[in-house]
Amino acid sequence: MTGFGIGFAASAGAVLLLMAGTFAVARKLGKHSVVDVAWGLGFAVVALVSLALASGNGTRSVLLAAMVVLWGGRLAWHIGRRNAGHGEDPRYSELLSKAPPERRTAYALRMIYGLQGALILFISLPVQAGTHADAAIGPLAVLGVAVWGIGLFFEAVGDHQLHAFKANPANRGQVMDRGLWRYTRHPNYFGDACVWWGVWLVAAETGVGALTVLSPVVLTFFLTKGTGAALTEKRMAGRPGFAEYVERTSGFVPLPPKQR
């Protein structure tokens, strides 16, 4: 518990510095959407801090850090490339419109940077806990890596397919229903959930890591009911062909398309 407490405090400090730097960049660029890049980076930072202070099984510590850094680094690179050259994300404009102009800076610090920083620390608890236990690597960790691999595949391939689809002018105004998007309306969000359930399985094998189960539960809730799939579909509701796409395609877990 002492090692975990020290690691948690160090991770909190690292995330605080990352969010402060991100806020400074956002002020300079005039858009808060840069925090989306810091989301993946924040998890990678926590994983590296946890690895540096790890007091448990060295193999598991390296494994957990590698899983999170690879996922977080890829996500940050993808979002950075996607957002380059674009203005503010409408989500943040709408959020900040709820506060009077003179209070928007404080509101942004609390509701964007503070909230995301807190979520990073909470969702990454399996990584933090798993690096301070001595249990040997076993079948549950192997299963966790497999689930993580499936998640990374769905997220990375789904993002690539959507990027290529949007880059083709012939697809302007159409609904993406090809590749992995034929089997689930949100392969990237499904992949995200699998990644963190896989990380939790690796940590859960230590026993104490199993107590962090609320971390993947909370993330899955946000991906399905919060700012993930539900918000995306709300924005796309009026797009031609989207209602038909919803009728034949699974909302989250990949399934064969329904025959009409």
UniProtKB/TrEMBL annotation:
Keywords: Membrane, Transmembrane, Transmembrane helix. InterPro entries: UstE-like. It comes from the Bacteria. The keyword ATP-binding does not apply. The keyword Transmembrane applies. It holds the Pfam family DUF1295. The chain crosses the membrane at residues 6-25, 37-55, 107-129, 135-157. PANTHER family: 3-OXO-5-ALPHA-STEROID 4-DEHYDROGENASE, STEROID 5-ALPHA REDUCTASE C-TERMINAL DOMAIN-CONTAINING PROTEIN. This is DUF1295 domain-containing protein.
